[in-house]
Hints:
Elements: H1 2-14, H2 24-27, H3 32-41, H4 59-75, H5 85-89, H6 93-115, H7 124-137, H8 157-166, H9 182-198, H10 207-211, H11 215-229
Helix pairs in contact: 1-6, 3-4, 3-6, 6-11, 7-8, 7-11, 8-9
Amino acid sequence: YDREARAFALWLNSLNVDPFVNYLFEDLKDGLVLLQAFDKIFPGSVNWKRVNTRVPLMRFKQIENTNMVVDLGKAHRFSLVGIQGADITDGVPTLVLAIVWQLMRANIIQTLASLSTHGREITDADMVKWANQVVASSGGRASPIRSFSDSKLSSGHFLLDVLNGMKPGIVDPQLVTAGHSDDDMKMNAKYAISIARKLGATIFLLPEDIVEVKPKMILTFIGSLMAIKH
Length: 230
């Protein structure tokens, strides 16, 4: 879980939470960072008078906070079946990652909705459609993807075509590999990430996330590109 945990910690820190998150599963156990994240994404959602803020907190005080996190997640229609505050306090990796991912996704969706002309909620399908349209309009060679778990994403060619569609000529074809071997795919992924950052996108994923086609992380990549395009 280390790679996802590192990416999610970077995202939380980008929200200017306090204290700084170094180790995700340890630093979220008192609920305070997650409550700050909720309050930043959904302003006014946290009743701070009910939050235990005087650290260090006894375990039962931590669980009171993390139970509040779970309640907030449910109030915002997160999928939290079987997750209790104690799971966050105990640092259960899969469950901590599940709630942080849904917070991160809500943040991306919210940002895109605020930037769009119609202001409606953006779906995963909307993001896939946008990426396919950018590639098609730019004359990119990559074939359309069906979802963020499409195996075609592993070569890096599709993402590079998206970037070139956003700013024609920014991708140097001589630096793009055939993408057949793992090393070639990783080089393309590194190149795509470097170009995205050059365009001003905030990127949390690693080259391995592209090569291994991690849908959650690729969604964050496309979401960030959509945000700067809008």
